[in-house]
């Protein structure tokens, strides 16, 4: 059986009371969650003006990532599909507001009220069809569309996740771009098997200088540049930063060769041909082959 939890059972079933308490009591998990949350908050690039922001924690679980947001002086709303996880968060008296819901059905928040969003190891669950009614492409569409609506203009969403393969990665990123986001993927420690982490850094709105994708961290903890990647392996899996935007070329309307030159002369010739075959054809008039207006 695979070690990836999303391949074993739906999240609301996998994270039952036993698994939720086991997850929250693990010192290793707590440490990893704190590091990932700190990095996600760093990539949000919130203004350093001392003003607390309202942030959204998608897949908040038992509130481990939300504690990092509280420690940095921000208010937050947590959403999760596992009732057991939220019960543990309630028992731990986390400071955020907790919502029970399925992000694949939309977030259901008012437009423009969220100053930033983070998600730690959650969005990849949307790529699995746990029920016969689940279509990953449609669930991602509903999620990103509702996320785009609830974010303030220019706000960021940082989604840390573990895509199973390139196809899954491209599916998630393309769904975000179709919803209107700009941005790309930041990969920390791209050449490390254990330390490699992927963050989808998305900005609500079209590409701009302020929406540029941040640099990733390398093996020494310093920022990686694109030049470093060119000098190292050219493997597609080890790309440090990939950038995409929502601007795509418009499809040109196909013009059939048969449709060219179908004017009044063509219509009259066609009617005459039908008459010679013995078919009943309306008489010609000044209205024959006249183009109709778009509206009356």
Quick rundown:
With 296 residues, the chain is an alpha/beta fold. It has helices at residues 11-14, 17-25, 27-44, 64-71, 83-91, 136-150, 166-178, 226-231, 264-276; strands at 54-58, 75-80, 97-100, 114-120, 151-161, 181-188, 197-204, 216-217, 223-224, 241-244.
Key words describing this protein structure:
296 residues; 10 strands; 9 helices; elongated; alpha/beta
Q: Average pLDDT value?
A: 82
Q: Which quaternary structure do these chains form?
A: single chain
Helix/strand order, N-terminal first = HHHEHEHEEHEHEEEEHEH
List the uncertain runs.
225-248
Description of the molecule:
There is one protein chain. With 296 residues, the chain is an alpha/beta fold. Helices cover 32% and strands 19% of the residues. The chain is built from nine helices and ten strands. The protein has an eight-stranded mixed β-sheet, sandwiched between helices. The protein has a two-stranded antiparallel ribbon with strand order 8-9. A hairpin with an 8-residue loop joins strand 6 and strand 7. Helix 3 crosses helix 4 (64-71). The radius of gyration is 27 Å and the shape is elongated. The chain starts with 10 loop residues before the first helix and ends in a 20-residue tail after the last helix. Mean pLDDT is 82; it is low at 225-248.
């Amino acid at each position: 059986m695979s070690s990836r939890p999303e391949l074993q059972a739906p999240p609301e079933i996998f994270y039952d009371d036993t698994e939720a308490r086991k997850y929250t009591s693990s010192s290793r998990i707590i440490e990893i969650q704190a590091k990932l949350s700190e990095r996600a908050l760093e990539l949000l690039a919130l203004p350093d003006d001392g003003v607390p922001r309202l942030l959204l924690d998608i897949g908040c679980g038992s509130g481990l990532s939300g504690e990092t947001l509280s420690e940095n002086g921000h208010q937050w709303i947590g959403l999760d599909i596992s009732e057991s996880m939220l019960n543990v968060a309630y028992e731990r008296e986390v400071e955020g507001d907790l919502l029970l819901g399925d992000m694949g059905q939309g977030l259901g928040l008012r437009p423009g009220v969220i100053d930033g969003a983070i998600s730690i190891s959650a969005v990849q669950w949307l790529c699995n069809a746990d029920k016969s009614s689940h279509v990953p492409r449609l669930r991602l569409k509903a999620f990103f569309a509702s996320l785009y609506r609830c974010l303030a203009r220019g706000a960021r969403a940082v989604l840390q996740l573990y895509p199973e393969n390139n196809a899954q990665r491209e599916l998630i990123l393309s769904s975000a771009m179709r919803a209107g986001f700009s941005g790309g993927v930041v990969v920390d420690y791209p050449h490390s098997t254990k330390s490699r982490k992927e963050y989808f850094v998305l900005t609500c709105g079209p590409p701009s200088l302020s929406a540029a994708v941040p640099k990733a961290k390398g093996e020494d903890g310093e920022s990686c540049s694109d030049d470093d990647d060119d000098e190292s392996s050219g493997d597609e899996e080890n790309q440090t930063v990939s950038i995409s935007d929502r601007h795509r070329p418009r499809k040109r309307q196909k013009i059939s060769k048969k449709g060219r030159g179908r004017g009044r002369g063509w219509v009259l010739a066609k009617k005459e041909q039908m008459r010679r075959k013995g078919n009943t054809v309306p008489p010609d008039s000044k209205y024959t082959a006249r183009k109709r207006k778009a509206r009356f």
